[in-house]
Design brief:
The chain is an alpha/beta fold. The chain is built from 8 helices and 4 strands. The protein has a single domain, classed as Roll (Diaminopimelate Epimerase, Chain A, domain 1).
Length: 169
């Protein structure tokens, strides 16, 4: 299993992200994040990479470990209300992970995040990468709006960038 994973990641070109999510798709994902954040006080970051770094593969680390590291590196944990959420996709392993900060994790059970990941995986399996990511962002926004609704008359502070992060280029 480990050898097959190494080969799969080794053969995956960083350009795989461009094929799955071209520039226009990334712009639409960014717009979905912006639109969702109008309805809630949370912050959503989306990060995608074609393959895991070799340091993760050597240890046979799961995509979840990478997502948790990126959660910190991208400062998703650094929101005032601790209501940031990272949506991470590893194309080589078809890994989809959602990491939520403390305040969100206290409100939303893990099963809800898993359901979103499963929905996205189904869309990815049929080649709908953009649609899968946008649907994931919308479902995350729905949960954040239920638990951290926008305050009347206030605009979301937009503490984190909305632009998707492409890793490994």
């Amino acid at each position: 299993m480990k050898l097959a994973r190494w080969i799969r990641h080794g053969l995956r070109s960083p350009r795989a992200v461009d094929r799955a999510l071209p520039a226009a798709a990334l712009e639409r994902i960014e717009r979905a994040i912006v639109q969702g954040e109008i309805a809630h006080r949370g912050e959503i970051r989306f990060a995608v990479e074609a393959r895991l770094p070799w340091s993760y593969l050597r240890r046979d680390a799961p995509a979840r470990e990478r997502a948790e590291m990126l959660f910190a590196k991208l400062h998703v944990w650094d929101t005032d209300e601790r209501n940031g959420v990272l949506l991470y996709v590893d194309l080589a392993d078809h890994g989809i992970e959602i990491v939520a900060d403390r305040a969100v994790a206290a409100c939303v059970p893990r099963e809800r995040w898993q359901a979103i990941c499963s929905e996205m995986a189904q869309r990815f399996a049929s080649g709908e990468f953009e649609g899968g990511v946008v649907a994931g962002v919308e479902r995350i926004s729905d949960l954040l709006a239920a638990h951290f609704p926008a305050r009347d008359g206030e605009r979301n502070a937009d503490e984190l960038p909305n632009r998707p992060v492409i890793l490994g280029r």
